[in-house]
Amino acid sequence: MFNKLKYFTMNITKKIEQLRIEKGWSVARLARESNIPTVSLRVMLNRKDVNNYSIDPLLKLAEALGVTVSYLVQEDNEDSQKPKLTRLQRDQLDRLMKAAIDEFFDSEGE
């Protein structure tokens, strides 16, 4: 059971680190975005101890990273759920797509 618990914790840590790196954030930036003290976050990520992952920090981290808590705690073979785009990211994507479509149709008439 200990090995399963250790694997579970390491999997959460791996996902948090992967998402943080994808966003180009430092640990300090993730701490700010999730409203978790930097020292506490570093301890969570470095000790890889399941006792460091209570629900409150997981909720804060998931929100900051734009994913659900269930995404963070799923085992790798259950990773069918993709990280969600934040509302801001969806709005930006919508604007970019609209601008590209408008530009395409505007240039078609030339």
Question: What features would you describe in this structure?
Answer:
The chain has one domain (2-108): 434 Repressor (Amino-terminal Domain) (Orthogonal Bundle), CATH 1.10.260. It contains six helices and no strands. The chain is elongated. The mean pLDDT is 79. 71% of the residues lie in helices and 0% in strands. The protein is an all-alpha fold and 110 residues long. Helix 2 (27-34) packs across helix 4.
In DSSP terms (H or I, runs of 4 or more residues), the helix count works out at 6
Q: Considering the protein shown, what is the CATH homologous superfamily?
A: lambda repressor-like DNA-binding domains
H-E string:
HHHHHH
CATH architecture: Orthogonal Bundle
What count of structural domains? 1
Helix content: over 70%
Mean pLDDT: 79
The CATH class assignment is Mainly Alpha
Strand content range: under 5%
Low-confidence stretches: none
Main β sheet profile: none
Question: What Rg is obtained from the alpha carbons, in whole angstroms?
Answer: 18 Å
Instruction: Look at the helices and sheets and give the structural class.
Output: mainly alpha
Number of strands: 0
Q: CA-to-CA gap between the ends?
A: 68 Å
What's the overall geometry?
elongated
**CATH domain topology:** 434 Repressor (Amino-terminal Domain)
Task: Throw out a few tags for this protein.
110 residues, elongated
Concise overview:
The protein is mainly α. It has helices at residues 2-23, 27-34, 38-47, 55-65, 69-73, 87-108.
